Amino acid sequence: MAATGRKHLVRDFNHFITCYLCRGYLIKPTTVTECLHTFCKSCIVQHFEESNDCPKCGIQVHETNPLEMLRLDNTLEEIIFKLVPGLREREEQQELEFWRKNQPKENGQAENLRCQRFGLSDVGGDGGDGGGDDGDGGGNDDYHRSDPQIAICLDCLRNTGQSGESTVTDLMKRFIRCSSRVTVGTIKKFLSLKLKLPSSYELDVLCNGEIMGRDHTLEFIYMTRWRLHGENTYPMVLEYRPRIDFG
């Protein structure tokens, strides 16, 4: 008789797909680049609020800002979702419920905002600040409508005395709504287009005076920089600082 292969159960892989901190399945698995240990994003972010060391091996991740040494592992996330039936759906539902509870509508305004390029849209009114997308009824406009949404305010922060800064104008509309998964890099592209910045300019995006990394998502910034610093105002305020890139 031909030998039949042993069927593997999900529990056979639990050692590889569970979080050392919460002992549950890895949700938004995030790897520490210094030691390559992986945890749930929310678990490791919360841990780094109190310590700069890896919770599993004890290595110092960074002297001052260990959050800069974290990287999302999207491949592992997809593997876990395929291994564990129903996990993706449960997590998406919980995430939607969280954002519904924590993002009230401003002044009861109807959410009739048109999604624009990069999943961003200006808040309040039609047309205006560079809204040059073709048509309002096309399905291709709604790139991120199914994502949890977040409203942010973009303020220009100028360093007085820096050469050439007087040529940079403020946004006509500072309030925008976008997917919570939008990254700082995308915000920079959006600002560069709206402000029509020359290629010699670079932008820093800051929250509470701290420069945000290009790969940081708005959800990550909201959870680790805005909400945890006692900010209860809404929308979240991000500042952008134009500078000339001499590199």
UniProtKB/TrEMBL annotation:
Gene3D superfamilies for this protein: Phosphatidylinositol 3-kinase Catalytic Subunit, Chain A, domain 1, Zinc/RING finger domain, C3HC4 (zinc finger)
Coiled-coil intervals, chain numbering: none
Location(s) in or outside the cell: Nucleus
Biological-process GO terms, alphabetical: nervous system development
Pfam families in UniProt: RAWUL, zf-C3HC4_2
Keywords: Metal-binding, Nucleus, Repressor, Transcription, Transcription regulation, Zinc, Zinc-finger
Domain RING-type: 19-57
Cellular component terms (Gene Ontology): nucleus
Chief localization: nucleus
GO molecular function annotation: zinc ion binding
Function: Component of Polycomb group (PcG) multiprotein complexes; the complex class is required to maintain the transcriptionally repressive state of some genes.
Quaternary structure and interacting proteins, as annotated: Component of a PRC1-like complex.
UniProt-recorded name of the protein: Polycomb group ring finger 5a
Native species: Seriola lalandi dorsalis
